[in-house]
């Protein structure tokens, strides 16, 4: 006779402390908690020095770290030498993702590209994703592209990003290594790491021939992110050398401000005049080069809303996603996106992410300040709502109506619409409710004050009458 086990009843919901409610002293003794808590680390400024000494006292901290992000903007970070970074990174054998940023992070770059470190099989053996702060095409020795062969010694590396766009050093000072040094350009040697890369982010410079040599070896690339593109010609030349353009699925583009003519009178082939939106680079020829494209992302100075780009999109399967990123000059109106989707019809992207317009964010409510003493002044709205972000378009009824129409059409057409512009409608609704609530409570508070003043006056009159 076979006995069938009775299923266990579901665990009851209990209102008792969870793991994270335990004292830190106890949590420090639980290995699984360490693995979770220390899997991702974010270092900012002098915190790197703190981590350095913490790793010396407790090496287990480094063994659990899988992702490290370093923001190195303060002059104090300059004391973190290449040797310092070599020691710190050597204590992180499980590290898979490394990202560093800031004008003082170049010494980390130098430590990673050091051939002695790279050849050490115990130095970052699990590294898969690497995001470096300097553009190796434009920095002087010893940080130039000649050190890139060191990357061959990271066997699991599949995602690589170099450099910042042209605006980066302009906003935070010059490159710590100084101006670019002039030297004889040498071709990139055959590198095994380039054949392994599936994800590459690069910044274009005057040394475009180096980038072409670089891209010619990327035989498995499915994602390409290119920044500071000086002109459509340079982008076209880079895409031409891709050995497998048919497998590229994601293309993210950021054109340089210098890439577009100053006025429409000097327009040449490849540019479109968007009127109030300015002159843009048409993405049509680049879309046609990539038959397997699934995700297209761009910001300022270029467009896919012109007739040629729409024609190119109609000739291929619908994009999985179109991302419109924030840009200095880009303020694409929702009615343009709506017309674009209607024109594409069944060829419209399955998802459109509208991050090109600020959506705002919420903050404290007036009810967070309750109760308010009747004898006190009602809090000023500026003080109460100081941490709210309210975009200008919240007061533009036409703009709001256009966004709502775009949302309604997208829903009916089966297009998923996301991004800060869409989120802004929710923030706008919350702001309207908060504003109405604030005014209601303010009026009630002032009414109570007037009532109290009237009672005081009547009381004073009664006292005077009795006297």
TrEMBL record:
InterPro entries: LRR_dom_sf. Residues 440-452 have a biased composition (Basic and acidic residues). SUPFAM superfamilies: RNI-like (SSF52047). Residues 453-467 have a biased composition (Acidic residues). Residues 440-467 are annotated as: Disordered. This is Proteophosphoglycan ppg4. It comes from Rhodotorula toruloides (strain NP11).
